[in-house]
Each structure stands twice: as C-alpha cells, then as structure tokens.
Amino acid sequence: MPRAHTYGAVLGFVADRAFGDPRRGHPVAAFGRIAGSLERRLWRDHRGRGALYTALCVGGAVAGAAVASRVVRSSTAASVGLTAAATWAALGGTSLGREARAVGAALEAGDLAGARERLPNLCGRDPQALDGPQIARAVVESVAENTSDAVVGALVWGAVGGVPGLVGFRAVNTLDAMVGHRSARLRRFGWASARLDDVVGWPGSRLTAALVVLAGADPRGAWQVWRVNGAAHPSPNAGPVEASFAGALGVRLGGTLAYGGRVEHRPVLGGGNRAVEVADIERAVRLSRRVSVLALGVAVGGRLAWAVLSPPDSVWEVPPPRFARPRRTAYPQPGRSKGRHA
Questions:
Q1: β pairing state of 274-275 and 251-259
Q2: Is the pTM value of this prediction over 0.85?
Q3: What are φ and ψ of residue 262, in 5° steps?
Q4: For 67-99, how does the pLDDT look when each residue is reduced to its tens digit (9 = 90+)?
C-alpha cells in the first residue's frame, strides 16, 4: 500500500520534528539493551561469532517488523499508524539538531566545560582533548554524518522496504555504533556489523551528498569538495557527506582527532576553506534540516512512482482477486437434470 506508506512516513517525519526522541521508552534504546545482553553472551574474539551476533540482532528486528506489517496489512489506518510509529522511532534529526545547538550555545557562552560535557551525546570523540574550535568542527562533522545515518538513510530504506526496511536500517546503524569500532576487543567481533553498515549506508550517503549540493549555499563548492576529497575519508559513507557539507558551508573539516582512546589523522576535506567557527554549527543544522525535507520528498515520491510504473503483481502491492471462484453445490441447479444428459 504505497499511499499508506506515504501518509505514515510524512506523519512520522512530522512527529520527529515536533517531539524529537522520547527521553524514556525509546524502541531503539530497547533494541540496544537486548543487543548488549546478547553481545555479552556471544562475544568471542572471532569474526564468525560477530557475524552470528549481527544476523540474530538484525534478522530478529526485521522479522518482527515484517510480522507486524503483515498483521496490519488489511487495515489502511493501522498500516499508516505502524509506518508513522516506525518512521518516528527510526529518525533522529530533531534530537541531532537540538544537541548540536546546545553545544554551540555553550561555546558561544564561553562554557568550554559544558560543551565538552554535551559533546558525547553527538559523537564518540574524547572531549577533554579538544579545544573550542575543535569541538565546533566535531559538531559540524557529526551533524553532516548523522544527517545521512539518522534521517536520509532511514527514509531511503523505508521507501525500499517499508517498515521492515526502516527497522532493519536502524538496527544495523545501532549495532555499528555499539560494536563497529576498531578497538582491540571489537576489531573482529564487530567486523560484520561495521561492514553491513557500510553496505546499507551507501545509498543514503550518496543521496545526502547530492541533496547537500542542491540545498547548500555553494552548490559548486559542495560538488567540487565531494568530487576531490570524498573518497579520501576512511569511511566510505561519511566521506561524501562530510566533504559535501565542507564545500557547501565553505569550511575545512577532517584532520587530527582523538577517538575511542586513540589518535587518528584523517585527510582534510576542503583544504582551501577556512576553519570551522561556532556560528557554522547553526548553519550546518539548518542545512541538515533542508536536506531532510528534500529526502522525505524523494523517498515518498520514489515509492509512489514505483508503485505506478511497476506491474500489478509487484512486491509493493498485490491487488485482490477480481472475482471469487463459484462454490460447488450438492444439489441440482433449477432447470437442469441430475443426469449426464437431458
């Protein structure tokens, strides 16, 4: 039911804009607790164990969503409600903007300690190793990357796979945040989660970068930095997104950072641009919001177009039978003989 998905996706998007993430009882947090408990039971320093862990977590989430979708399929209202709830749970654009602005407000007030305290809500970098300009840069980079991970990617997979697609994408993204690190403990166990996140994040990251080119103040700069520097980033999906943001905002991203107890020297994105300033945080949040609205239009429009152009027996919508087979009766029809001939 493509129309049910459209209505549900729009309602879920509006709910995220209006309310953001709930402070308690968030479905993603519940999934994280279950995944954490399973990790403690299955962990071994082995890729095979990590692959099993990833399959159980993601497969279980997708299966549950598929069952729920099938249960409500006969009711348009219930399908809209389920899609809206799943979209709201999967998106995180409003909370992303709120946290980024909170860090920016602390920096503007000269409260470096407060900015360091709030930064872990956005990214996993060591805040104590960062000064004010480095924190501002980290916030802009986090806004860029999470525009793809927390908004655009979810909308894309919702358009492709409905509620199971939404839930599956968020499950993969959550596992990558939990175990997809290159620490000594998780280098092998989290390998499958990290690689799967690279795969499912590919379409959303490219769409995000393309929409940044369209929505940014400097389309030519966004395109040039994406084309020149996007592939230099160690992450195949964060690279195009951060590079396009750097070009659109006219700032320089990347460089040295402290992450997960280690120091990384990442390539500079937009090397000819100026350094990030605190005011650029607000500019990045506004660009993220414009990209999110455009992504919603692309996602729901693409699904509706596919439903119109696809054959009737497509996976999107199977029409009901046009007529029912007549029932056979045990008694002769009026005007007809019981025998084989008249």
A1: parallel
A2: yes
A3: -140, 160
A4: 999 999 999 999 999 999 999 999 999 999 999
| 48: its two tokens | 């095979």
More confident residue, 329 or 275: 275
Q: What is the mean pLDDT of the chain?
A: 89
Distance, CA of 245 to CA of 226 (rounded, Å): 9
Q: pLDDT tens digit string along 147-156?
A: 999 999 999 9
Q: What is the dihedral of CA 200, 55, 178, 23, to 10 degrees?
A: 80
> Could you report the per-residue pLDDT of 106-134, keeping only the tens digit for each?
999 999 999 999 999 998 888 888 899 99
Which residues are within 8 A (CB) of 258 and not within 5 positions of it... i.e. 6 or more apart?
A: 125, 126, 129, 130, 264
For the stretch 315-319, contacts whose Cβ atoms lie closer than 8 Å and that sit 24 or more positions apart, written own/partner, are 316/2, 317/1, 317/2
The 3-state secondary structure of 90-104, one letter per residue: HCCHHHHHHHHHHHH
- Residue 102's closest CA among 82, 92, 116? 116
Residue of 292, 317, 285 lying closest to 304 (CA atoms): 317
Closest alpha carbon to 276 in 102, 143, 135: 135
Query: What gap in Å lies between CA 310 and CA 307, rounded to an integer?
Result: 5
Sign of CA dihedral 187, 188, 193, 197: positive
CA angle in degrees (0–180, nearest 5) for 161-162-167 = 85
Question: Is the CB of residue 284 less than 8 Å from the CB of residue 140?
Answer: yes
Cα–Cα separations (whole angstroms), residue 261 to 29, 120, 126, 134, 339? 24, 13, 7, 17, 90
> In the beta sheet, which residues pair with residue 252?
275
> In the sheet where 274-275 sits, what is the strand order?
262-269, 251-259, 274-275
Separation of alpha carbons 20 and 96, rounded Å: 9
Q: How far apart are the first and last CA of the chain?
A: 51
> Which one-letter amino acid corresponds to residue 38?
L
Cα separation of 87 and 238, whole Å? Answer: 22
As a whole-number percent, the residues of the chain with pLDDT over 70 amount to 89
For residue 217, the one-letter residue type is A
